[in-house]
Design brief:
There is one protein chain. 45% of the residues lie in helices and 5% in strands. With 78 residues, the protein is mainly alpha-helical. The chain folds into two domains: 37 residues; 32 residues, no CATH class. A two-stranded antiparallel sheet has the order 1-2. Strand 1 and strand 2 form a beta hairpin.
């Protein structure tokens, strides 16, 4: 796994909503995108998961594919 941080689905969604709001020429669409961003901000945080092999804690999509500190282990935990 590279050191470069990958974006979560939630982070990608927020980026797309913000970019769409920034580039729209329609006040109606801008208002809808602003409401969507407000709803996104009100979402509860994603619960963290713990790797059953090494105990590392993080977002589910990152823990699912991280490299364990244990030799020769690639966690694919659910």
């Amino acid at each position: 796994m590279s050191e470069e941080r990958t974006l979560t689905a939630r982070e990608r969604l927020r980026i797309h909503l913000r970019e769409a709001r920034r580039t729209t020429d329609s006040p109606i669409v801008e208002a809808q995108l602003t409401a969507a961003l407000d709803a996104w901000n009100d979402l509860p945080p994603t619960p963290l998961r713990e790797c059953p092999v090494c105990g590392k804690v993080g977002l589910p999509e990152r823990i699912r594919n991280h490299e364990c500190d244990q030799p020769n282990q690639l966690c694919m935990s659910e």
